[in-house]
Amino acid sequence: MHGELHPLTPHHLPFFIARPGETDWLMIVMGIFLIGAVLAIGNIYLRLHTLPERLAHKSQKLQFEIVAVLGLLALFTHVHLFWIAGLLLALVDLPDFGTPLGRIAGSVERIADAADAGSEQGELKAAESATQPGKVEPGVAKEATVPKKEVPSHA
CA-CA distance, 33 to 52, in Å (whole number)? Predict the structure, then answer.
C-alpha cells in the first residue's frame, strides 16, 4: 500500500479519518476512554454494592457480620433481595442486649463467689465451734436461736 489517496476520494477529509499506513489516533483515544469508563463504572458499582457493609461497620459485630453475609449472597447469587435486606438491617439500629446481659452475668458471678466464700467461712467457724463447745464466736449465731423467716409467694 502506498500513502496516496484514491483518485475518487474527496480532497477534504474529516480529521478523524486516518490516511492509509498512519496511526488511528481516534481509535486509541476511544480505547483508553473505554477502559477508563469500565473501571469507573465498576468502581461505582462496587461502592454501591458495599454500601450496607460500610453503614453497618460502625454498629455491633454480629449485625455487621450478618450484613456482610447478605452482601456476599447478593453478589454471588444475583438475588437483589439479599442486598435490600442487608441495607435495611444496616440502617436499623438494633438494641444492645449483649452488654447489659454480660454485666448482669458478671454481677451474679461475683455474688455467687462471695456467697460461696461466706458459706465456706461460716462452715469453718461452725466446725471450729463444734470442736470447742465452750467457745462461741461473736459473729456466728446458733441455728436454734435464729427463727426462719417465711418468704411470701407472688403466685
Answer: 30
Task: Answer yes or no: is pLDDT of 24 > 80.
Answer: yes
Q: Is 152 helix (H, G, I), strand (E, B) or coil?
A: coil
- Reported as type and span, the H/E element at residue 112 is helix 98-131
> Is this model's pTM higher than 0.70 or not?
no
Contacts of 81 (CB under 8 A, 6+ apart): 74
With a CB cutoff of 8 Å and minimum separation 6, the contacts of 52 are 67, 70, 71, 83, 86, 87, 89, 90
Instruction: Lowest mean pLDDT of 16-25, 73-82, 113-122, name the range.
Output: 113-122
C-alpha cell at 95: 438494641
Cell numbers describing residue 82: 439479599
138: which 3 cell numbers?
Answer: 461473736
Residue 85's contacts (CB-CB under 8 Å, 6 or more residues apart) are 70
What the block records as the C-alpha cell of 43 is: 468502581
Question: Which one-letter DSSP state was computed for residue 142?
Answer: P
